[in-house]
Amino acid sequence: MRYMVVIEEGPTSFGAYVPDLPGCIAVDESSQEALQLIQEAIEFHIEGLKEEGQHIPVPHSSSSFIDVQA
Known about the structure:
Elements: E1 6-9, E2 14-17, E3 25-28, H1 31-51
Antiparallel strand pairs: 1-2, 2-3
């Protein structure tokens, strides 16, 4: 499965989350490290859902960029 990940830059770190997997988040000092951690978090999250016999959410989120004049 391929899940969309959102990366947000904060004052001192980068946060990553997966809209299709509520509660699946990661934080690190660099965006690359946050991406690596969210990969692990997604795998761990799905493994936990499987162990509990819960439904694995099908990815359905997408993203787009809109250009505007500012």
